[in-house]
Amino acid sequence: MGAYVAEVALRWSDMDAFGHVNHARTITLLEEARADLLFTEAEKQGLLGMAEGMVVARIVIDYHAPLMYAAKSLQVRMSVRELKAASFVIDYTAVAQEAVCTAETLMVPYDLRAGRPRRLTTDERDFLSEWRAEQLETGRA
Q: Environment class of residue 38 by beta-carbon count within 10 Å: exposed (0-12), middle (13-18) or buried (19+)?
């Protein structure tokens, strides 16, 4: 299927003293987009377990241009890469007035009751496989 696209609204409070969206808020905007994929879209397809425990083990972000509040929203394209038994990577390209950043998160399913990582279920792997892409615009495979 390829990339999942989420539109995330910018808030006035996202701006910093320099007149653009603060770097930490940009990460929060990516988190909102990721939640749309892993929780909302997964639930629409009958998958409820992902919302019960999924943690970020690593995040890498490259900023390419300032994100200005005037853009009003951020379009985030996400694809799954490195789908393993107990982890996966999501690649992001975030665009407003232009490509503002690319990022990746290493995601780990987590059993909150047991307090430890768990393996992906077959249904979760199937869902995530829908969002695999051969290559994103960032050049990552």
A: buried
